[in-house]
Amino acid sequence: SGKDTSGKCPASSSPAGNVSGQGPTLSNPPENTLPSTTSSNKKARVINESDMDIENTFSPSSGPVDTTSVEQTSQTDTSSLDASLHAPNNDGDKGKSIEKTLAVSFPERAAFPDAFAAAVQSQPTKFYASAAPNAIEGFWNHFAMNCDVYDVVDRQLSLFSSYGSSARCQGSNELKRIIVHFRTKDDIEKATADPMDSLFRLHFHPYDSSAIKANENERTLVVTDIPLFLNDALLRGTFSCFDNITKCHTKLAKLYRTAYVTFESTDAISKFEDTWAVLCGGHCLCVYPASFSPDQCKERRTYVALLAGLPRGTIAADLAEIAHEVSAKSINVPFSMNSS
For position 233, which CATH number holds? Predict the structure, then answer.
């Protein structure tokens, strides 16, 4: 209480004319008062107004910086970051730069009931024509080979813009035909109107390949179970007694061959509707018309009786008497134990 405290200046009071260090009171502070090292106490020292202006120029305009709050904001909160990544997107928050992952979306295509009708289809049409060169007397005297005829026909028919430029021959002897095709109906009508003087009066006629194949199929007989040692000459001689043969070709089928015999007329085929087999060289050959359906062909192998204990080297001709007694339609003697 006896101490003089008039020389002390509180931090909130305006500065006086004395500077720091003048006066006995400021030079000798009380012993029980500890010197403060905080930044707030440093700003509270008494200075002149002119010095204050100079010092304020370099000091920040805001108040003292709270280092504690800065350290807290610099730390990464993993829990809040994870929650923000999985939080739903809120379109109402505008002005915030939120990273968004762009999702690629494709428009849904409406299902069409018929895909073939929806697609653009191209079905080029070809109009065929044929001519019989052997019907013209002395026609082959002007040509040495078939390729010579092709070249002359192609040059002559190339005058038509839709000509296919691919003449070819089909058949042999009296059935030999020169086949050509066009892409427009108008050109084929002009080409088949009259015989061509430049081609030695060769006359082309409309030719329907599908109709020709269908007609040929009606005149074709299928012959199966032909042993490999039976030659084509013996095969042709066996079936030529039914009608004239126009074409005959064979193909290999395991231990046997299969033949396709084409006759001139369908009258010969009608004879095989009830005939199931024909003997050729002592062996039984199964036959059926090519126009038969798969069910009709399967019917001829549905009911089978097995005859065992035959002597070695037995052929179908040796069993003809037994087949007649039991009214068998065909006989098959296999050449292998595994064949049927």
Answer: 3.30.70.330
